Amino acid sequence: MNKRVIILLFSMLLSTSGAAAANFEVIQLYSQDDLNKLINNNQHLQRVKADECQLVEDIEAHAVKIKEPSYTYLWGDMLAWGVCVDRNASLGMHYIRLAAKQGLLAAIEQLGRYYDKGILVEEDKYRAVIYYREAALQGFLKAQLNYIRLLIDGYGSPIDYEDAYRALFVNVIPDPKVHQQAKELLDRLAEKMPEHVVKRASKEVI
């Protein structure tokens, strides 16, 4: 094979590689803000699957090595449900708990929901109340709704009614359906509270 043919073949190879690279979609790692939005909308696992599991190694590195709370939670949820990895529910719960200890409200709320519904763990409403309360009093809407629901059902302590009421009352809820749900829960909780406590809890703290 002469030099001219070799050069021609090499040029064709470069051209083909360039075209393939141009057609290959590079998936960027999620920013913290984007990932938190996905988590809060419960779309994080669907996004990982939609990205054809291309970011598994990066997600694991950010969770295990860098220990970023949102990635720790994502990695735990992937393991817990076998999304793009072999399922390991026990290890998944370990990382979800770790994210909760790191202060990620979505992880704290999810632990409350798991104990509330008996998902992956034995049902324990009283433990669910503890997790819901922690996230609720820091403004996490999903936890606030579930926290008040359990208080209405007789779990938790009447001592907590005022704080639970106030936390949800002052929250800004753009979704009309969720806003109506919150109003109905507040009305039901108010029935279990003295009128003067309801009035006090209804005052927004500036």
**How many beta-strand runs?**
0
What pattern of helices and strands is seen along the backbone?
HHHHHHHHHHHH
**Oligomeric description of these chains:** single chain
Number of helices: 12
Characterise this structure.
By secondary structure, the protein is an all-alpha fold. The chain has 2 domains: 27-103, no CATH class; 126-206, no CATH class. It is 68% helix and 0% strand. It contains 12 helices and no strands. The protein has helices at residues 3-23, 32-40, 44-50, 56-64, 69-81, 89-101, 105-117, 125-136, 141-152, 161-169, 176-190, 195-201. Helix 8 (125-136) packs across helix 9 and helix 9 packs antiparallel against helix 10. It starts with a helix and ends in a 5-residue tail after the last helix.
Please supply descriptive tags for the structure shown above:
68% helix; mainly alpha; 12 helices; 206 residues; 0% strand; 2 domains
Task: Tell me the layout of helices and strands.
Layout: H1 3-23, H2 32-40, H3 44-50, H4 56-64, H5 69-81, H6 89-101, H7 105-117, H8 125-136, H9 141-152, H10 161-169, H11 176-190, H12 195-201
Q: Brief overview, please?
A:
By secondary structure, this protein is mainly α. 68% of the residues lie in helices and 0% in strands.
